[in-house]
Amino acid sequence: MLKINHMELGPIQTNCYIVSNDAKQCLIFDPGEEAEKVIGFLQKKGLAPLAILLTHAHFDHIGAVDDLREEFKIPVYLHRLEKDWLGRPNLNGSGKYPMVPDYRIGEADVLLDGEKQLQIGDFRMELLHTPGHSPGSISYSFGTEGFAIVGDTLFRGSIGRTDLIDGSEKKLLASIRVSLMTLPDHMVLFPGHGPETTPEQEAASNPFLNGF
User: Fold this and answer.
1) What is the pLDDT of residue 114?
2) pLDDT digits (tens, 9 = 90+) for 136-155
3) How many domains are contained in the chain?
4) pLDDT given for residue 211 in this prediction
5) Residue 125 belongs to what domain range?
6) pLDDT tens per residue across span 18-50
7) Domain CATH number, residue 56
8) Which of 41, 80, 92, 138 lies 20 to 30 Å (CA to CA) from residue 56?
9) Residue 20: how many CA atoms within 13 Å on its side-chain side?
């Protein structure tokens, strides 16, 4: 059985998720900032990270990538459509806000494109391409474990913004309808910000999903 821990990182309180197994191996999802906080948690728990996986490449999800990659000598996974975003502030969004430093992160080690399944060590997950918030947004579904990490595609009672580079409300709603709302009703969805939810809860109460 997998265990999932999360911590809120950086000025926008982005959810970073640590998914670990009984062998004390783990995957790091969306380390948005505060690398030292993540390192301290992993050391305290005795966890050995195998990889960093990104739901997308906006600045608030990538700030600690280089520090963690260097510390643990692990690869970074990202969708191919955002391969240039890590190092370009105009694409990752950091150049949009004067109060945010420009984020220039090294290139991803593994570019995902069309894969349906991904295995890293003993971790197996289904990849759901969920564009709309950004073109390369990915949701990572651990179906047998009953949870999915969905980035900024869907939130409790809301949806991801679509006014950033290559965002599309039409694509976002299609992604939610086809990829997320078809998951089991009680599947726990862990978003990039805020508390977890389920497809059942969002179908019943999310004002953006009327008619789903």
Assistant:
1) 85
2) 999 999 999 999 999 999 99
3) 1
4) 67
5) 3-209
6) 999 999 999 999 999 999 999 999 999 999 999
7) 3.60.15.10
8) 41
9) 15
Q: Which residue, chain included where needed, has tokens 């389920």?
A: 198
Q: How far is the C-alpha of 102 from the C-alpha of 88, rounded, in Å?
A: 8
CB-CB neighbours of 36 under 10 Å: 12
Amino acid at 152: D
Characterize the bridge pairing of strands 147-151 and 154-155.
unpaired
What radius of gyration do the chain's Cα atoms show? Answer: 16
On whether the pTM is more than 0.85, the answer is yes
